[in-house]
Write a structure and sequence with these properties.
Elements lengths: L2 H17 L6 H8 L3 H13 L4 E5 L5 E5 L13 H9 L1 H7 L1 H17 L3 H8 L18 H16 L1 E9 L4 E15 L2 E8 L4 E6 L3 E10 L23 E7 L4 H5 L8 E4 L5 E7 L3 H8 L5 E5 L1 H19 L7
Antiparallel strand pairs: 1-2, 3-4, 3-7, 4-5, 5-6, 8-10, 8-11, 9-10
């Protein structure tokens, strides 16, 4: 049997023991997991050897039931339940793939503190958890230096304590650096990048800044009172990281890609309708930004914007420009 299946089953055994108020009989665990009682006994022995506080006792009817005693990490102030601890370890790869430069060091330190409270065998068991959940690392998310960590610390302090800040930012659109006076409102993570949402008095508006393009931040003694409310999902109107108003859009997808379109929720506002020939119509209310246009163009000839006409014309123009670029390319040397 693959090691991953064994770990998953033993995790289910532990979770079943923890959630059962009056303990669980071995045959009940075997029936629930579809294995023999002998397998469950081996799992219980292995978990006990790993250091998990399991014990058995007889109930009023004389049946032997197994229990998990208390919290696993009593040494931490709040403690962790077993399910919380396993979920944390299972998610470790995902956390590390998106943690980014300023948080990776702190994440490593947090796990190191937890591991000090574990027995060697318990740690060995939990260390197998991340191997069951793969995550593709975000490009540029690893590494980092003290300067980036310090910058992030100042941004966090500014948002928590409403400190006015001055910031030097490198703008991709203008290709130059600019100094801003800002009121930092929130730090958000989206699409593999950290973003700062800050009120800019110069523009009397809230703007979004990529943290990776912030050159420097200085906190002022002056504080500010937030006068604008941010939604919990700050980028909820967009398929990307924009925060503009929503407008309707309707897109027709060809039959060969329709099953893939139906299988996912692209935006909470979406509505799907079947069309002739196996095609599917997708309607949404989203921000008509670059993220939406890029997403549509990514489907190539398999998608067609039906409404609004202005967006359909923009997509058509982009496709024609791309076609002309390919037609005008030089022939490769022979």
């Amino acid at each position: 049997m693959p090691r991953n299946q064994e770990v998953i089953r033993q995790w289910k055994v532990l979770h079943g023991l923890e959630t059962a108020r009056h303990g669980v009989a071995i045959d009940a665990l075997a029936d629930e997991l579809g294995v023999t009682t002998r397998t469950i006994r081996r799992d219980l022995a292995a978990l006990q050897e790993a250091g998990f506080p399991l014990y058995d006792e007889k109930d009023a009817e004389g049946r032997v039931r197994w229990r998990l005693e208390g919290q696993v990490l009593k040494g931490l102030e709040a403690g962790f339940t077993l399910a919380e601890l396993c979920a944390l370890y299972l998610s470790r790869n995902l956390l590390e793939s998106v943690a980014g430069a300023p948080f990776r060091r702190d994440l490593t330190m947090a796990f190191a503190r937890i591991e000090k409270m574990l027995s060697p065998r318990m740690r060995q068991f939990l260390d197998a958890m991340p191997g069951m959940l793969a995550a593709k690392p975000t490009p540029g998310a690893s590494g980092g230096d003290d300067a980036q960590a310090d910058l992030m610390a100042r941004l966090l302090e500014g948002t928590l304590h409403h400190r006015v800040a001055t910031m030097r930012y490198h703008s991709v659109s203008s290709g130059r650096e600019k100094d801003y006076l800002i009121h930092p409102y929130r730090i958000a993570f989206a699409q593999g990048e950290l973003y700062l949402l800050a009120f800019v008095p110069e523009y009397d508006d809230i703007r979004t800044f990529a943290v990776s393009r912030i050159e420097s931040v200085s906190l002022e003694k002056q504080t500010f009172t937030p006068h604008r409310d941010l939604a919990d999902d700050v980028f909820g109107n967009s398929l990307g990281v924009y925060s503009g108003p929503t407008a309707p859009v309707e897109i027709e997808f060809e039959a060969r890609i329709a099953p893939y379109v139906r299988a996912r929720v692209w935006h909470p506002s979406q509505e799907l309708r079947e069309a002739e020939g196996g095609r599917v119509l997708l309607s949404m209310r989203v921000c008509h930004d670059w993220a939406l246009r890029s997403w549509i163009l990514g489907w190539g000839p398999l998608a067609r914007v039906l409404a609004p006409l202005s967006l359909a014309n923009e997509i058509e123009s982009d496709l024609q420009s791309a076609s002309r670029r390919y037609a005008a390319r030089e022939a490769p040397p022979r």
